[in-house]
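Protein: Vigilin
Species: Sparus aurata
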Amino acid sequence: MSSVAVLTQESFNEHRSGLLPEQKGGTGAPGEEEEALPTYKDAFPPLPEKAASPEGTQETANAWTSKLRPLKASVITQVFHVPLEERKYKDINQFGEGDQAKVCVDIMHKTGAHLELSLAKDQGLSIMVSGKLDAVMKARKEIVSRLQTQASATVAIPKEHHRFVIGKNGEKLQELELKTATKIQIPRPDDLSNQIKISGTKEGLEKAKHEILLISAEQDKRAVERVNIDKVFHPFITGAYNKLVGEMMQETGARINVPPPSVNKTEIVITGEKEQVALAVAMIKKVSEEKKKNATTIAVEVKKSQHKYVIGPKGNTLQEILDKTGVSVEIPPSDSSSETVILRGEPDRLGQALTEVYAKANSYNVSSVSAPSWLHRFIIGKKGQNLAKITQQMPKVHIEFTEGEDRITLEGPTKDVQMVQSQIEAIVTDLVSRMDYTEISVDPKFHRHLIGKGGVNINRIKELHKVTVRIPPDNEKSNLIRIEGDPQGVQEAKKELLELASRMENERTKDLIIEQRFHRAIIGQKGEKIKEVRDKFPEVIINFPDPAQKSDIVQLRGPRTEVEKCAKFMQKIVAEMVENSFSVSVPIFKQFHRNIIGKGGSNIKKVRDSTGARIIFPTADDKDQELITVIGTEEAVQEAQKELEELIKSLVRLQMTFEHGMMRSDKVLRDLADEYGGVMVSFPRTGSQSEKVTLKGAKECVEAAKKRMLEIVDDLVSIFFFLSKWNGIFLNLCLFAIVAAPPAEAPIQENGEANGEVKEPVDPNAPKKCDVIVISGRKERCEGAVEALKALVPVTIEVEVPFELHRYIIGQKGSGIRKMMDEFEVNIQVPAPDQQSDKIAITGLANHLDRAKEGLLERVKELQAEQEDRALRSFKLTITVDPKYHPKIIGRKGAIITNIRTEHDVNIQFPEKNDENQDQITITGYEHKAIAAKEAIQHIVDELEEMISEDITLDSRVHARIIGARGKGIRKIMDEFKVDLRFPQSGAADPNLVTVTGRPELVDEAIDHLLNLEEEYMADVVENEAKMAYMRPPGGSAASMDEQRGPSKGFVVREAPWTTGNEKAPDMSSSEDFPSFGAPVATKTSPWGPKRF
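Structure follows.
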C-alpha cells in the first residue's frame, strides 16, 4: 500500500520545533525532545484500505476532509406548485399542448432554464425548474407572472423611504422582485402618493409586503439633524486636524458633517440613529455654548503679504496654532484688502497664540534682485538647469520671475533668501558684462518669412551668429524682434535680418481670380504644367487653394515685376483655356457612329486634324448615347460640325424621285399585274434622268393599267418644308421617314455666273435649297407629316435667374445642369461669367419647355431659400467662461459638448491656445438654438461653480484597488456620485491625501463610500501583510536565520517505517532511493511498499 502525506498549516505550526529546536528556549532533555516529535502516522495519515472497518474509515476520512470546503453545484433544481384555483390555463384536455405549452417553451428560451410540468391529483400544477441559480430565479418570476393568476395589493410607507426600497441603481428593487416573484411599482418622485403597488401571487404579495415594511421600519430608526452654529465656532467643534469631531463621531456613532472653511455655511449636518444623533447634537451645542461664554477676541494687524505664512500650506499652520494653544485664528479672505487678523479663544491662551502668529508671519522674508527682463531666461538656464542648482541648495526659497519686469522676487526664510540673493546678483553681473541685446522693427506680415519653412531661416542665423532671436507670436501683433547674445553676433544677426526684411518689403502678393474648374488643367498631370510656369518665374511663389475650399483665388508672391509678368502669363493660359472650352452637342444616331469614326478612326482623325477641335463620343455610362460633343474654339467647333454633317449627308442619298419610288413598290406592281391581266411594268434605270415607264401586255389591259397609274400619280402631291439651322437634326430622320432630304447647296459664284451662263439675280429672301425638305404623298398624309415635323423643331426661351445663383445651378463639374437637361430633355445654356447676365436660355421641344422652365424656377426658389437659411444659421454669440471649466464642458472624449452640439444643432468653438481671449466660447447657428446652447453651457458652469473640494485621508495601500484596472473602479465611483476624484502622484508630500470635488451633498456621499471601501480593503491588506510576515520570518537575511537555528536536522518524526524494522532511513543522496528521471534503477524492496510505474 502506498501512503500520501498531507502537511496542514496547523501541523506545520505544531511540528516547527522539529525544524528549529533552538528556538524553544534552550536545549531540553533528549526524552522530552523525542516526546515532542510527531509520529509518522500523525504527520502522514494513511489512506483508507478496502477492508478497513467503518469506524476506521470514518476516522481517516475526517483526517483528510476536515479542511476541505464543500463544493456547490452550479446547476440547481427547484419545484414550484400552482394550485388549481390560481392556474391561468385550466383546460385539462390540453395538458402539454396549447397556450400553456407555448408559454413554457418561451420561458425556457428566454431564461435558459429547463422546465418539466406535471399534474397532481387535485389538478394543481407542479413545475420542476433546473438550471443555474440566476436562470432558475428568472424562470420562477416568469412562471408566476404568466402561468399563475395575479393579485395586487398596496402598502403605504413614508415617501422618503421609497429610495431605500429602490436601492442603488435599482438593485434592491430588482432583488426584491426576483426573491418574491412579484412586480413592484413605486410612484415617481414628482408623485405625492406614498402607496407602493405590488402585483403577483398571494404568497408573493405577503412576502414583498413584509420585506418593504421591514425596510421602512429600519429607516424609521435613523434621523438627520441640522444645527446652525456660528461659523467662527466651527474650528472649536472640529478641533485641530479634525480630532475633536472625529472623537465625537467615534463616541456617538453618528456622522457629523461640518462645512469646510472655504464654504460660507453655518449649518452642521448630523446623520445616524436617533439616539446617536441626539447625543452628537448635545455635544456640539455644549462645545458651542462653552466657547461663546468663555472665548474672547483680539485683533492684530499683519501685512497682507504675510497672511499666507500664517495660514500655511493647506491651512496646516492655523491647525498647528489651534492644536498648541486652543485659539482659532481668523484670516480675512484673499480678495479682501483688510490686514486685520482676529484671534479667538480662552483669554490666558491668546498671548501664546499671538506670539505664534507673529513668529509665523515673520519667519519668511521677501526680497528682490534687480535684473533686466531679457536676462531672465539666461539666469534660469536651459530647462531650468541654473535655477535648479540654487533651489536644490535652498529648497525653502521661492524664486519668481515676472515677465516684463526688471526684477526677480525671492521669498523664503531670511537667511536662505540672503544667500540666494547674493548668488543671483553674481550671475546677473556676469551676464551683463558679456552679453548684449538689440531690437529691430519688422512688419509682422514678414515674420513668418523670416522664420522660414520649419524655422530653417531663423535657425541658420542663430547657429551662425551664436545668438537667440525672439520673434513675437502672431497674437501679440508686435513688430519688435529681439536679438540677444554676444555683442558682435548680435550686430551681425541684426544686419542680416534687416537685409532680409528690406528684400521682402519689395515683394508683392497678388490674388488672381481663376475658376476652380481650370486649376487642375493649369497644374497638369503630376504638376508638370505648373512646374514649367515656376521654372519660368523661379522667384514667384504660386499657391493654389485647397480643392475642398472651392475657392477661385490663386495667390502669387514675389518681386513686384516678376509677379506682374507671372500674372499676365497665367491670365493668357486661362484665356486660351476659356477660348478652347466652347462646346456644341451634335445628335447622330448611335448606329452611324462607327461610320463617322471610320476604319481605324480615319474619318474622325481627319476631322480633328483639319479643325483642331476635340470630338468626344458618348461612353457606355452616358444617358444620351446619340449626342457627340465637339469642344474647341468657336470657329473650330463650327467647322467640325459642318464636316460631321457632310459625313451624315454622304450616308443619305435618295437616288430616285418619290414617284418612281412609290411605283417601284412591290405591292403596287403586284396589284396592277393581278388586276389588269398580268401587265408588265418597266422603270428606267437608277441614275438616268428619264421619267418614262414602259407597260407591256394586251392592249385593253395596258390602257387600263396606264389610266390607273396616272390616277395614282395625280393623287400624290409634294410639299416643301423649309428649315434652316435644324437641317442636321432631320437628316437622321430622313433615313426612316418618307421625306426627301434637301441636296447640298451648290457653291455661289461671286459674279453670279456658273459654267459660263448668265444667271438671274438670286432673291436674298428666298429659301436656300439646303433648307428645304420635300414631303411627297397623299395630301392629307403630307399635311400630317408637316405638323409632326414642326412639332420636332426646337424652340428657345429665356428665363430670368439672378447671376449669383448660376454657379449653384450648374453644380459641381456641371452635375446640376446635366441632371436638369436629362430630366426635362432640353438644352440649357448658361451665359459666360464675364457677361454678368441674368438670362439663361432653354432650348428644346415646345411641349418640354414649360416643364423645364418650371423646374428651373423651382430650383431658383430652393437656392434662395438655402441662402436665407445660411444667413439665419450664421448667427454668432459668445459666452465668457473661465478656461479652467473648459475641459469639464467638453467632457470625456468630447461627450458633453458633442451632446450639446447635436441637441441644439449649433457649432461651438473653443479658443485656440494662442488666442488672446482664452475665456471666450463662440456659438454659431440659428439664433434661438444658439441662445439655448448658451443657456445649457451656462447651466453647466453654474453647477461647476457650486462645487466644493474636500481632502480626505485614504491609506495609500488601497488606492490601487479603488482606482481599479485601467481606472474602471474610479470611473464607476465618479459616474455614480457625479464627483471628481484626484489621487496623489508618486512622490507627493502626503501620499494618503485624496481630493473629492463636486456638489456638497454628493461629495459627502462619495466620501462615505470611499471610507467604507477603505475599511473593506484594509482588512484584506492587513491579512495579506500578516501572511507575508508569516512567509518571510523576521530578523534579517536567510544566512542570519541559519546561524540562529544552528545545524538543521530536517523534518523529524517518530515511529517511521524505517525505524520499526531493520531498514534504514532513505538516503537522500542515493540514486536508488531517489533516482533521476530516465536513469535505469534496479528494483529494490523497501518499507514504502512496491514501486509502481
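Remarks: The first strand starts at residue 76 and ends at 82.
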